[in-house]
Amino acid sequence: MSNPKESIHRALDSFRIETPSWGYSDTGTRFGKFHQPAAAIDLDDKLADAAHVHRLTGCCPTVATHVLWDFAPGTDPAAVARKAGSLGIAIGSINPNLFQDQAYKLGSVGSPFEAARDQALAHIIDCIKLGQVTGSKAVSLWFADGTNYPGQDNIRARKHRFESALKEAHGHLSQDQIMLVEYKPFEPAFYQTDLADWGMSFLTAKKAGPQAKVLVDTGHHYLSQNIEQIVAWLLDEDMLGGFHFNDRRYADDDLTLGSIDPYQIFRIFHEIHLFAWERGGVYPEIEYMIDQSHNLKPKIEAMIQTVCTAQELYAKAALVDHEALLAAQAKGDIVDAELCLKKAFNTDVTEAIAAWRTAKGLAADPLLAHRASGYAEKAGAERAKRRQELGIATEHSYA
Amino acid sequence: MSNPKESIHRALDSFRIETPSWGYSDTGTRFGKFHQPAAAIDLDDKLADAAHVHRLTGCCPTVATHVLWDFAPGTDPAAVARKAGSLGIAIGSINPNLFQDQAYKLGSVGSPFEAARDQALAHIIDCIKLGQVTGSKAVSLWFADGTNYPGQDNIRARKHRFESALKEAHGHLSQDQIMLVEYKPFEPAFYQTDLADWGMSFLTAKKAGPQAKVLVDTGHHYLSQNIEQIVAWLLDEDMLGGFHFNDRRYADDDLTLGSIDPYQIFRIFHEIHLFAWERGGVYPEIEYMIDQSHNLKPKIEAMIQTVCTAQELYAKAALVDHEALLAAQAKGDIVDAELCLKKAFNTDVTEAIAAWRTAKGLAADPLLAHRASGYAEKAGAERAKRRQELGIATEHSYA
Amino acid sequence: MSNPKESIHRALDSFRIETPSWGYSDTGTRFGKFHQPAAAIDLDDKLADAAHVHRLTGCCPTVATHVLWDFAPGTDPAAVARKAGSLGIAIGSINPNLFQDQAYKLGSVGSPFEAARDQALAHIIDCIKLGQVTGSKAVSLWFADGTNYPGQDNIRARKHRFESALKEAHGHLSQDQIMLVEYKPFEPAFYQTDLADWGMSFLTAKKAGPQAKVLVDTGHHYLSQNIEQIVAWLLDEDMLGGFHFNDRRYADDDLTLGSIDPYQIFRIFHEIHLFAWERGGVYPEIEYMIDQSHNLKPKIEAMIQTVCTAQELYAKAALVDHEALLAAQAKGDIVDAELCLKKAFNTDVTEAIAAWRTAKGLAADPLLAHRASGYAEKAGAERAKRRQELGIATEHSYA
Amino acid sequence: MSNPKESIHRALDSFRIETPSWGYSDTGTRFGKFHQPAAAIDLDDKLADAAHVHRLTGCCPTVATHVLWDFAPGTDPAAVARKAGSLGIAIGSINPNLFQDQAYKLGSVGSPFEAARDQALAHIIDCIKLGQVTGSKAVSLWFADGTNYPGQDNIRARKHRFESALKEAHGHLSQDQIMLVEYKPFEPAFYQTDLADWGMSFLTAKKAGPQAKVLVDTGHHYLSQNIEQIVAWLLDEDMLGGFHFNDRRYADDDLTLGSIDPYQIFRIFHEIHLFAWERGGVYPEIEYMIDQSHNLKPKIEAMIQTVCTAQELYAKAALVDHEALLAAQAKGDIVDAELCLKKAFNTDVTEAIAAWRTAKGLAADPLLAHRASGYAEKAGAERAKRRQELGIATEHSYA
Fold it and tell me: pTM (2 decimals)?
């Protein structure tokens, strides 16, 4: 196999990670929200923060937007795209909000109420159009739909409603757009979630049309479920559309990537490198996106941390000696096959990544560079003042 | 064994369930809150709703209060207690809020910051005093304390801070008061929760003092953990202080009791009846409290449903033939021993409970009686109007 | 809705449950096996026991066989079928053994070794032929295949091996036969199981051919996974082939049905009744089979208990008022919709089932009838003696 | 902080790991056992293998024994100890077998049958005496006791039986001996396990006496439970007696250490290093033992792999900068505190450990040294032949 440093640099060259606009503003749990002075207030702040992270890391050229929170009525999406462009970034995936409006009490496209379904579908179609105007590739669908109590609704009827809505929405996609269909076992639906696992997303996407793919959120699985196996199956079926990066220990904890189980993330990346290696180095098109909601770590630090951790684990996974692995597997030599992975995982890639960054004109350590930049302090002072002017409460809030 | 109907009536005669003030107002998940016109706005509404539920069920004579949300600064607690009394109920357990204030970002009594710890302890002591003024017996402590990332804080140092704070707080209890120490595996702390399981609550309560007991929330356990065994151990150690009733399928879902796994609740009640039977019919003092946060079911209907389900499962568990069970266990006859439980669980107790209610001058079916009463419609109309007058937004909110 | 007793009787009339030959012999955990004198020694014993259970319950006309354990080399399958027929039962599903031979150390059809794959495929084809000779309808495939350590084998290569093998096997099915493809999250594979969830079984069965369907084992799911939702999806996709009945609390515990969570089994049956009701009373063809491995309860008692529990929960689920349910769902009335299920579940169906049995000339309580029959004592005495004659050790054994 | 290499070497100098005799012989799952020619047949083989592993690693001076499997009736324990000594190792913890005998069908010291309880207690006392004769320090108690069905036995009665038995057994300990009390949530008991969690082991050990401590098996926890927190609590209460090392993904999978989640094991070691650092470098007395049952990897390779992984993660954890950590924690700087752990975990310690080994006259890579030694081939040839002579079946077996 080739030189490790080269492998790492080649891997990083093509590895792009999208940061989420909502990851720059205050978030919380149902028990409350802890405010940070430097948290973004509006879309301009979010774009500025995303551009800052991209300047520091060099690998975050797009920012995911959340339509309800980012595009206030009357906003000109084309202007937003231009604004982003002027900051050196672009608008990434478009995320409809299908859970917050009072109309969605019993679901969005899965609701028993036609009005709610119509509203949801119209919003999805609006988002598709918004994507076309902003030059965004992916429309990323997460549904909170489901039921909270046995008997609450007809599971198969809800399934049919989903199939019908996504098929219709798919018809509005331009040729360049893709539709990502996310799954999640539970929360906020606590009895049954309409798209609860990869199999449900897979079947629903298949019925929607050829531009619909599955979105894997690393925090949306049953305890002990093998995520890298799901990734391998989706790759094999040409149905892996993208990722939402985060980590968790219990439920959908939305922690920074690799903070709880870095080896698992490494193994996911390994499946992707291996798949590409078998195809002569051709990597599949995958949207790598961050979706975390760390309410304690400073927002921008947390974002940089996840980006750097993703690079680090992606780089480590690029070090697996595929030929040696294949040979060990063919002999049924479990210990040697496993050691191919462990050796790569145990390699300290800090310096190789720093060298890659330096070669790109980036700071060797983006977190330190961020801290040295004074960005957070400046934003904190300015935004705290603006918050006061706008009369935005920063004291306790409760869901 | 005695007549089933008699067993049921005797069981219900002494079974009291406390409803929570916060269960009458709008709640939600971190993804939003769905508003109900009839949801309580202020403490007066909550007391009225609790009194209504007690009138219908005859077994909910107390209402748990949540200090931060219920006792606005300047409130006269004695007046609140009188108000409750005038409605036919009394103030039940006092619940401090140790998670919402910005000071508690890194914890309350477990925080690394002395100021946060002092504020938390002072609030607990205030709650103890409030309990004395309102004639409440239990101070019910739930801590959101913990850490979200490995290394964030010193686990043993946090343990010591808890031990010290609860010991000091215990010193402020009157002889009539008890301190209930709740545990919860996770949320909102996602790496480590300071009181994560019954063992941690047990040890902490033991060190606090003799009036401190463990509070078991039926939704606060690891998946597949055997709750009735924990209940049996706590009974045996004289450390079971009370329950928070709700049900769940995944995490702390806060659904209405018995909606997902009624047999489990039955088995918990069975352990209590069995314990009492072995002591000649002397029941331990246990605070039975509801803690649910159903954001879709109508609030009062959900409350009545949980109360009725608790009665139903408590009544069924009272039907277990303890002598037959003991005999089967002594012979190691697994099938017959299990059938003692299944037979009781399978008995339809609807009519026996209806008869008990009728004998008490209550409606046979509290839910139907509530619907027939027009209470919800009336409250809905009045509260919607008041909300408008108060300028309370009822549209989308996000945590 | 119709008369409850009629609904129950109509439901029971068409409800057939297959008992497994291996459920009559000694089984255990990896920590040991506890011997029962009355446990079956050979296929004759198993057929006799299965016939006894069918005589008592009237609803177990077939017995599942496990090829390796039941059909010793040289056995004439046609003779076995005749033997069963003479006892009043028939041979049910054929279960290959693809895990026990030393060749299967790294898997059967998923093994990296061609010889193992060939041996496995040949065995499956043999089983299909065996099914044709014995007049059995279903070939039931459970694979222990998977890997124990990261890197051990190529997940996608294993997937392809499965697809190829099952497609080839499918070609050998007669028109009357079906192929059931089971899934299981883990054990004995502890890193990755080749068919780990319903989605994997679904895709694999689809690629195998139109006579391949998914087999749902009620104990083979991730903790908290919603089994009835999977059942509803499979029904909707016309891919539900059958069930393996058992219950569990933690992993694949193989306890008797409904012993831990009866309400869950009820909800599964509810999905089936509801599906049939929507189709004008036409029930889908589903193989209901028992697969339990209770190593403590007396074997035949445990079997009867599961059969009776299945009938009981199937009967309760038949009592759901579908029209009322539909109406409540259409209005979004969660409480009323849920009560449709709870009311049915809470109905005591003991007497209605006893009446159905009496009308069929069966004992009202099969368990009591079994005990009164002296069958177990007689079998115990005879088999203990035979074991001694055969020199079969009945003392401790360890896996 | 001190030089990393020094920290690593100092850490390794005092780190001893006990290998288990049963880890050298064929094991399996309930679905079968895959035979290895080089697997140990008898105690002599096991001692030889353990001595071989100690020669290669220099840190495994003791071997845990399993009384039932290792000490056949008539064995002279003193002779066994001398034999071990002549091979350069010593007898480590003594493990009674309290689950395999037919008498233990319903439990050992927790059984409802007095005869079973007496037999179990007598066996424990024999083991204590055996430990005294062999110069072993720890008697390590794992109980399979529990129940499989609701109602099967009285949970509190079983608790009392445990308390009484362990107290009596404790009275037989010499001053040098300790009693380790293990816990496990389930398997082979599937409804309720008598010592199911650390709290139950803790209370039971406390009541037994001052020489009883808790044994933490890294595979015996609920999914998502935080093991390092339990370790921290036990350290703080002076109740941590030892570990059983293995890894798992789902249940008690008994995989080699760190094969699934190495960061978790690192965090456990971190708690121990931190505890010692706070006490001025005084490490608590902890028995580090391996308990794995890998039935696919070559036995000795798997043992060496776990030993090396334990050293590697213990060494990494020794690199945490405790002063920097403390400072970050005191400031509530979550990111910096976490980075103290991540930096240490990401350090490649391969060379530093190799240097430590070389300095001790050991091979730099024990696994390679083992393979180069030809030990397995030689043992395989000899043992295969001996197996044949002894008439030991090596073909399929089923529990």
Answer: 0.97
